[in-house]
């Protein structure tokens, strides 16, 4: 069972985003196309042999809390260790840190394969990478030496411990408190954390929480939040560190990864280590969260991809009905992929997942460029990446709920049963618009922050890129009509921006009231741009002697689909965004 | 926990659709407003006391196949019997048939309450009603006497047995065969049926299948399909009738109702009774299916309603964040219902479910009028109902997948956990675009059949109704701008129809290729019309001395929401529908 298309992934990496460019930078200069291929082959092997076979099992045997400890699927121990041994957890880190200086783009592409095979299983090592990254960048030498080696090896699990019962979207309301101790510079931590992914389990020997807490007497709000390392077991003596697993959340999907409710320091016995400076915790966390957000977009895209391929293979095999022009019941039935409406549902999925993957790997490449570039270039890439982050998180997250739904629909009744993995994908996709910032939060981030930054500089950079892509596409006669279409919708988008921005200074409530729709509109535009880029390359290849005509024709046709069925939605969205009627602002809670 | 709004239901029944009008017809003349109230109160009591308490339990303890028999939740036996004893199963049937001549509108409204409380539990008795109805209308006196009394009492379960492994959407490919026997006019049935809801279970003493089969040597295709009554146990001696439960389907949602795979006559021992005439089975079934289709729309709407109320109550209680103008972290957090984006998600849900309920009860009233009216009036109501049926089935089905998703999103992480029933509603909503004809099938039914009937007469009747509603709304100054908006989108819709229809005769494949989008567009228009009607009444009430200002303001505001955020989508849909680019037709399966 194919859960992704290697051909398509390679198209994005090597034809669309030309990531071999990265090799020219000294940091990546030991790599070559062949090492990238080897990495991706290795990823496919783990995904195929170790992860995909557990997909259904892990869903049906969800983690359980027993005697204060969370038990997960026994197969997870082997998978995590393999990730450690093969060097995945610190693959992108420098040689000095034991890493391989792998471009983030290749790392994300590998992640995509893992996630498409088994999203729950992929969560464990990725969380460890993120947590270790925080220690690596902001922690002291002692902290690094104490914690990161066992995290890199997969022996210990890392987590991000942010959310509390009264502080979800509103992180400024964090209550967990850190008390300095006189003897050794450590802190005593007290509080509770909820929804902590992999917050406790028995597939690793220790759990290392990267935890936000407020040092006693710190300023209120976001300015008084610090970052701590809080292990479940103390490193010195392996004794419990007073981090109690109070509960486990059962959930609709991605059941294979445990989500814990933790009580911290209930017996005054929890030791934590400050990372970096006091009160800078949130800014540290946000630097990682931006990467995590692009990562969530990738998760969603990967799940959508697996669902697409499952539904595509069903559509090719399932005979049902006949062409409308040939209703004779004595004729054999045709595979449902021949029906226009089934093709529409498949094209919808393909346009969402391949459009998303294109954007996500573009963002990954930007992050590599930010890493290796200098000066203005570095700054520009950074601004562009920041602007695109809420879109790269939210478009795939929202749209893969719909694309997995289309996958269910392709199968009809069969799609609703547990005989196929598609209903699981549908359930798993639904988490992504929620975690790492809800779609609503990202709408406000985009319109209320990213668009306004440096007088709209990031936006100008994005527009420049889009206009460049349009110019390149215009050189191909068969694409001209579509370039005009994109130009028109780009104009429409700019009209919306020009109408909205003057309101920013005045009434923020009103200015941001439809930020979610603005995010949706920008997502549709940006993915349209990614499709035009893909189609441009495909059209060029088709002009040459390329033998893979089917693959490239598919790209062109899917671009057509996207423009005809998806891009047009900017029309309605902009109608709403240009309207002066403040429906949600004026609605009163008593009227519901 | 409120799972529906009685106030809103009464608004639709008595203010919006004025169903007391029905009492003037002799068939309903024994009823009065008070008896309707009593019926609805009784429905609420069962829903609240017997059904809602089992909602979660039935989801977590799904039916199991043990030793060839399906075991369901033990509470179902009591619920089904109560439905029988209280006369729900045959409530709409005539006095002569032991029924109460209850208007279908009141029966559907009661069904809405049951479905909102516990969709799975509501399925059992509703299926029995549908099956009994087929025997009642098309069966012989003997069949009626033999089967219906025990179905009405809830002792026996009724089913609709249509789908087969090779015949889902394509019913013309049914293979189950009926062989006439010489001795008593019965038939021997052989074949298999899949996805049979309540096809076997232990909460009733017998299962009565209304089964489609092909009499041996009957014409191929839909013209050779007959309808049979096939009991699980023979009535004469209570011995097994060779209907074997081969399997049970486990599924994503509505787990409380079992779905069976049945082997019929594997040992040549299955007796069936022909209903009505040979080869007319599909037309009989379709008469019932039209009602069932509106019923599916109601199911979806009811689930969406329960999710809306659960998310509304959470939004009123959950404090998180602050007004954007008051970010001071020392201020207390505000309930999330104060945030514009949360209000948007609630308004979206409200607009979908109350708009749908309005349409569904309108359809139910039409079916009552078809029943009691005569001549041209009867025909017109019938045509209008036929035209609206695919919309009444599909708009709620598709949109309540999205509205339950919005309910999940209102709760954020909590919505994804099993701590709240909302994730269950999300899973249960997803079946409705599939069963009783997929959305794609209904799109083709609307554009390829209903719109074309009698030279578009049904469409003209609908337009007349919409224009009348617009005229009534124009009398209210505050609604004038919205009436113009609806007129414009109506014009746009007509433009699409005028562009599409000339293609009907030529290339059906191309003509119907975007039928699903056409259905979507028509759904948005029709629900917009229902909202204008609701707002007109609300505005009238607000002009008077009415004390329920909050309720009516909510209606006006939700209409505003619908027009500003939903109706505008006709813009993009019509752009696509007017385009000449045949993307899905031109796409080849090799290109995926």
From TrEMBL, chains A, B:
<feature type="domain" description="Acyl-CoA oxidase/dehydrogenase middle">
    <location>
        <begin position="160"/>
        <end position="263"/>
    </location>
</feature>
<dbReference type="InterPro" id="IPR036250">
    <property type="entry name" value="AcylCo_DH-like_C"/>
</dbReference>
<feature type="domain" description="Acyl-CoA dehydrogenase/oxidase C-terminal">
    <location>
        <begin position="279"/>
        <end position="445"/>
    </location>
</feature>
<dbReference type="Pfam" id="PF12806">
    <property type="entry name" value="Acyl-CoA_dh_C"/>
</dbReference>
<dbReference type="GO" id="GO:0050660">
    <property type="term" value="F:flavin adenine dinucleotide binding"/>
</dbReference>
<dbReference type="Pfam" id="PF02770">
    <property type="entry name" value="Acyl-CoA_dh_M"/>
</dbReference>
<dbReference type="InterPro" id="IPR037069">
    <property type="entry name" value="AcylCoA_DH/ox_N_sf"/>
</dbReference>
<protein>
    <submittedName>
        <fullName>Acyl-CoA dehydrogenase</fullName>
        <ecNumber>1.3.8.7</ecNumber>
    </submittedName>
</protein>
<dbReference type="InterPro" id="IPR052166">
    <property type="entry name" value="Diverse_Acyl-CoA_DH"/>
</dbReference>
<dbReference type="InterPro" id="IPR006091">
    <property type="entry name" value="Acyl-CoA_Oxase/DH_mid-dom"/>
</dbReference>
<feature type="domain" description="Acyl-CoA dehydrogenase/oxidase N-terminal">
    <location>
        <begin position="37"/>
        <end position="155"/>
    </location>
</feature>
<dbReference type="InterPro" id="IPR009100">
    <property type="entry name" value="AcylCoA_DH/oxidase_NM_dom_sf"/>
</dbReference>
<dbReference type="GO" id="GO:0070991">
    <property type="term" value="F:medium-chain fatty acyl-CoA dehydrogenase activity"/>
</dbReference>
<keyword id="KW-0560">Oxidoreductase</keyword>
<dbReference type="InterPro" id="IPR046373">
    <property type="entry name" value="Acyl-CoA_Oxase/DH_mid-dom_sf"/>
</dbReference>
<comment type="similarity">
    <text>Belongs to the acyl-CoA dehydrogenase family.</text>
</comment>
<dbReference type="InterPro" id="IPR009075">
    <property type="entry name" value="AcylCo_DH/oxidase_C"/>
</dbReference>
<dbReference type="Pfam" id="PF02771">
    <property type="entry name" value="Acyl-CoA_dh_N"/>
</dbReference>
<keyword id="KW-0274">FAD</keyword>
<feature type="domain" description="Acetyl-CoA dehydrogenase-like C-terminal">
    <location>
        <begin position="468"/>
        <end position="587"/>
    </location>
</feature>
<dbReference type="Pfam" id="PF00441">
    <property type="entry name" value="Acyl-CoA_dh_1"/>
</dbReference>
<keyword id="KW-0285">Flavoprotein</keyword>
<dbReference type="InterPro" id="IPR025878">
    <property type="entry name" value="Acyl-CoA_dh-like_C_dom"/>
</dbReference>
<dbReference type="InterPro" id="IPR013786">
    <property type="entry name" value="AcylCoA_DH/ox_N"/>
</dbReference>
